[in-house]
Amino acid sequence: xxxxxxxxxxxxxxxxxxxxxxxxxxxxxxxxxxxxxxxxxxxxxxxxxxxxxxxxxxxxxxxxxxxxxxxxxxxxxxxxxxxxxxxxxxxxxxxxxxxxxxxxxxxxxxxxxxxxxxxxxxxxxxxxxxxxxxxxxxxxxxxxxxxxxxxxxxxxxxxxxxxxxxxxxxxxxxxxxxxxxxxxxxxxxxxxxxxxxxxxxxxxxxxxxxxxxxxxxxxxxxxxxxxxxxxxxxxxxxxxxxxxxxxxxxxxxxxxxxxxxxxxxxxxxxxxxxxxxxxxxxxxxxxxxxxxxxxxxxxxxxxxxxxxxx
Length: 310
Known about the structure:
Helix content: 40-55%
Low-confidence stretches: none
Order of helices and strands: EHEEHEHEHHHHHHHHH
């Protein structure tokens, strides 16, 4: 096998010129703020002109891969957030970067001309996933996200997204990046609509994150039973088994008693955590919320019936 040099490290906030120089020199670079704990892909891009971007989530990679498949490269690129990733490996020659002023915006500019992948293999060491999911509250991690709003709206502004479930998908992408008010405006416009009322589900998450917990429970009652609940219960039980000594276990156990997900109990757990709970509890609940949101993105995309990038 050909020996390849280690990729050049480029920080997320580095000038794009540094990224382009790294790719011109070695056709490989690592963009990230977290340590690189594993080997990056050694294979070249799929063609002489294609870029290949491999996203390295620190946890729940199987869900990220399913989201990438459900959304297609253009929308999946809108999900990528430096604050939630170990990093991104880029291979190939850089294309035009005119008008692009950050590594993140450069990545998004490559969406329609790039092979996007999610790293395989095991996740990074356990501690690395803490802080790698949307905050329980209104804060967002990583860089400022105001500029993302028109990009998400543009990517979901076609007739294919005009249905209630297509609009719910927009609400979900905005919610992932902590754009609560923007997401709220969309979910309010599709109340009680959609195959499984996924817009109402995003609406409930919005109120949970803004600490309007009673209103969140109201919207979860509107949602009723949702298709993601069975898998959510299974995954939370797996976390309980994996981290039996976590102080979050009592709260999580209340959420999965019986065979159904107890959305109201999870709202209560989030309320307690945001009002002075232990940091370890908050981190675990954020991971569960991240799983919930990734599953909901997959389900919402399926309900919207949008075949993207196929």
